[in-house]
Amino acid sequence: MKTTVYILYSESLDRFYTGITSLATHERLQNHIEKKYTGNKYTKKADDWVLYFQLDCSDTSQARKIELHIKKMKSATYIRNLKIYPEISEKLLIRYRSI
User: In whole angstroms, what is the distance from residue 40 CA to residue 83 CA?
Assistant: First the structure.
């Protein structure tokens, strides 16, 4: 099953949110905006989230590893660079591919 790493951006908070989903990313974004998942307090802080970046992975394990890698970087610059330099995404897919 295809799983996607996605990054949302809120202009009002000037913050990014990173997650994974097996839903279509536009559906998952809508769930965040409509606050359908009550467990996610972070995205409840704003309702202007937009899809900033997405990366389709081969499976959930690969997606989770890439999500954690991005979160551990703790860097908005790194996230912006993911969008600017596609080779970073390619390297992540290779580094965390399932064997």
Answer: 25
